[in-house]
Amino acid sequence: MPRCESNLSDKIIKMVPFHCARPKGACKKSAQLAEEGEKYCLISFQYSAEEIARPMMTIEINGEEVLYEFDLIRIFTDEIEAREYATENGLEILLKKD
User: Fold this and answer.
1) Which of these, 77, 71, 65, 81, lies nearest to 48 by C-alpha position?
2) Alpha carbons 1 and 7: distance in angstroms, whole number
3) Cβ partners under 8 Å of residue 89, min gap 6
4) How many CB atoms lie within 10 A of CB 25?
């Protein structure tokens, strides 16, 4: 589970990306992305009460587990590209807990 040290906004996280919010196996593109494995992804946490199907992620904030909706914005080709983007845009890369 990722640990977030600051406020929530756009973040970069290493995860298995997906194409849509449908269940595993329902989308060919999501299945292909799952086969490719983890990649660095730009995600945007969502706070609205809109009735839109979004994926959810549990993250740790100040020692507490919180469930948040998010949108996948971008998939980076590698860690170098993700770190450059994070530096240029003042974003945090969330690290998974050991």
Assistant:
1) 71
2) 17
3) 10
4) 9
Burial class (CB in 10 A: 0-12, 13-18, 19+), 61: middle
| DSSP label of 29 | H
* 3-state per-residue secondary structure call for 54-87: CCEEEEEECCEEEEEEEEEEEECCCHHHHHHHHH
Torsion of CA 37, 38, 40, 42, to 10 degrees: 90
pLDDT in tens, 3-25: 444 445 788 888 888 766 666 66
Distances (CA, A) of 2 to 25, 27, 50, 51, 64: 25, 25, 25, 25, 11
User: pTM, whole model, 2 decimals?
Assistant: 0.72
